[in-house]
Amino acid sequence: MINKLKYKYQKAKLKNKDFDFLFNELDDNEEYVSFDCETTGLNPKKDEILSIGAVKLIDNKIEFSESFEKFLSPINHISQESIKIHHIRPCDIANCIDSKIAIEEFLHFIGNRTLIGYYIKFDIAMINRYAKKLIGTTIPNKSIELSTMYYKRYQKQSSHEFVDLKFDTIMEKLDLPKLGQHDALNDAVMSAMMYLKLKHMAEYKGAYS
């Protein structure tokens, strides 16, 4: 009920009808978008997106030809502290595009598909900050959190066992290859691989789950 009310509110706030497609009903085809953002910090209210990487999953296959990678022009200076995290230097985004154009293209890329990601709420919050200025509302897409999927499938040996939910740890435990350095597109592809691996694993229903 709450989700339906939120959906109606989001649609009512839409000011750009060119983006009505975001509110189309999902069809029977299994299509998803795995995505990741590199940002100047971890505060969606003030930090900026530096790059977006995304890839489509269609019929349980990663469509590498259907990938998305954009570097955005930040308003503020990139601090040395943030460079240590995302490794994106000012010279790396010298030929980047305006954030408005990048977000428009990203919204067209994702359509109404379900979104997949690692700690995806943060990435969606970052996209929403830009989307609200562009179309008047936040994106209504459903989302799947990979750390939650992994946690539900991890067979704990006791109720006190700590489950390491770091991205690299999950990749290692699932025996998935790492694709070089962490950047938005690589992380989106690895997240897609993670999803496909977890999707075919049964949730753990043991005594300690």
UniProtKB/TrEMBL annotation:
CDD domains: DEDDh. GO terms for biological process: DNA replication. One of its GO terms (molecular function) is DNA binding. It comes from the Bacteria. Its EC number is 2.7.7.7. One of its GO terms (cellular component) is cytosol. Keywords: Nucleotidyltransferase, Transferase. InterPro entries: DnaQ, Ribonucl_H, RNaseH-like_sf, RNaseH_sf. The keyword RNA-binding does not apply. The keyword Nucleotidyltransferase applies. SMART domains: EXOIII. Residues 31-204 form the Exonuclease domain. This is DNA polymerase III epsilon subunit (EC). The lineage of its organism: Bacteria, Pseudomonadati, Campylobacterota, Epsilonproteobacteria, Campylobacterales.
